[in-house]
Amino acid sequence: MHYFSKATIADLNTRYRNNLINSISGYKSANLIGSISENGTTNLAVFNSIIHLGSNPALLGFILRPTTVPRNSFSNMKKTGVFTVNHINKNQIEDAHHTSAKYPETISEFDQTNLNPTYKGGFSAPFVEGAPVQIACRYVNDYLIKENDTRLVVGAIEGVYVANEMMLDDGWVQLDLGEVVTINGLDGYALPQLLQRFPYARPKEH
Ligand SMILES: Cc1cc2nc3c(=O)[nH]c(=O)nc-3n(C[C@H](O)[C@H](O)[C@H](O)COP(=O)(O)O)c2cc1C
Questions:
Q1: Atom of ligand 1 at shortest distance to CA of 47?
Q2: Does 126 reside within a domain?
Q3: Which of 28, 50, 62, 65 to mutate to test the pocket of ligand 1 (most atoms within 8 A of CB)?
Q4: Is residue 171 part of a domain?
């Protein structure tokens, strides 16, 4: 196997190290965060760090990069209190990836891609039309991770829309039926396929 020591990793060129370290934590969630500024400019950005924080209360989180440059999604959600999390369908990957380009806050990524905003349920932040899972979130808190100046942002789930064909009787959402993609590293998009579901695991009886 290829071995990288801590010293080797420290000496790698930035792009190589970014690719390596971003890939090895495994397949990651692929989401678009939708938000809107106080003066009504929409914003859309791809995030691969959305995680489940808890079901009751229903919370999710994501990691925000250091705020050394403007972070439009973050400043919008702090000011308006709301944002959306939208899963990425395989037909949306090129546009989804493009939302990571550094546009100023006056330019909406919805206008720079074929992704369209949609509004529902009286929620003021934009959802992504055609996203197979769309989650309305309220900004709750953020915690500085002092080791690298990133932040864990906590969102409360206020409402969830799931495409009918993905919704199973027991509440389980079968992501592959919506052709929801996953992210390998920072620029590789893949389409997972369900192998099997298992019952709740219990210790073996000897
Ligand atoms: C695949 C991918 C995943 C990303 N995931 C994150 C992430 O989890 N957290 C983050 O802060 N930025 C992430 N980014 C970078 C943001 O998409 C990028 O900084 C974007 O410009 C943020 O837009 P905003 O300033 O409008 O919020 C990611 C970029 C790519 C290409």
A1: 5
A2: yes
A3: 65
A4: yes
Q: Is residue 133 part of a domain?
A: yes
- Report whether residue 183 contacts ligand 1, using a CB cutoff of 6 Å: yes
Which structural domain range is residue 115 located in? 26-182
Q: In sequence order, which residues have a C-beta less than 8 Å from that of residue 24 and are 6 or more positions away? A: none
In a structure prediction context, what are the per-residue pLDDT tens digits for the chain, which is 206 residues long? 999 999 999 999 999 999 999 999 999 999 999 999 999 999 999 999 999 999 999 999 999 999 999 999 999 999 999 999 999 999 999 999 999 999 999 999 999 999 999 999 999 999 999 999 999 999 999 999 999 999 999 999 999 999 999 999 999 999 999 999 999 999 999 999 999 999 999 999 98
Query: Which amino acid is residue 33, in one-letter code?
Result: I
Mutating to test ligand 1, I would choose from 36, 48, 69, 112 the residue with most ligand atoms within 8 A of its C-beta, which is 48
Residues 6+ apart with CB under 8 A from 177: 163, 165, 166
CA of 46 to the centre of ligand 1 (A): 5
Residue 114 lies in a domain: yes
Compute the distance between CA of residue 148 and CA of residue 98 in angstroms, rounded to an integer.
26
Could you give the number of structural domains in the chain? Answer: 1
- Pairing state of beta strands 31-36 and 42-47? antiparallel
Which atom of ligand 1 lies closest to the CA of 69?
25
